[in-house]
Amino acid sequence: QVQLVESGGGLVQAGGSLRLSCAASGRTFSSYAMGWFRQAPGKERELVATITWRYGSTYYPDSVKGRFTISRDNAKNTVYLQMNSLKPEDTAVYLCAADVAGNKLRRGNADYWGQGTQVTVSS
To answer: Is 81 helix (H, G, I), strand (E, B) or coil?
Structure first.
């Protein structure tokens, strides 16, 4: 089992920044890929970033590319999501996810999920 705990959400004005953290504990593997999703009320869950533990390879959809940056600290088993130039449409619950084989995140799925942290961007 893997436990994921997010932190760092909150209320920010449009144009501002937030950094989310996801601390992983339990059974962890270097082959994992980690990701951040978001889900706003009435909308489908959306993948916003992925990173591999071993090589640090990243992926972003066009909706956040250039504004969001995912990173990891292998020693701390922690993944971060730096969000800059935030917009009201970025408002959502942000969820951390772990993908054991590295082939689920881009299909919108994962093996383990965190509880989520709320991000609210005011206009």
So the answer is: strand
Between CA 81 and CA 79 the distance in angstroms is: 7
- The SS3 call for residue 102 is coil
CA 6 – CA 78 distance, rounded (Å): 10
Half-sphere exposure of 39 (CA within 13 A, CB side): 13
Strand 112-113 and strand 117-122: pairing? Answer: unpaired
Report d(CA 62, CA 81) in Å as an integer.
Answer: 16
CA distance 21 to 105: 18
Is 47 in contact with 60 (CB distance < 8 Å)? no
Per-residue pLDDT tens over the stretch 4-45:
999 999 999 999 999 999 999 987 766 689 999 999 999 999
Tell me, what's the pLDDT at 30?
A: 67
CA–CA separation, 94 vs 119, rounded Å? 7
Task: Report the alpha-carbon distance of residue 2 to residue 97 in Å, rounded.
Answer: 10
Distance, in Å, from the CA atom of 28 to the CA atom of 35, rounded to the nearest integer, reads 14
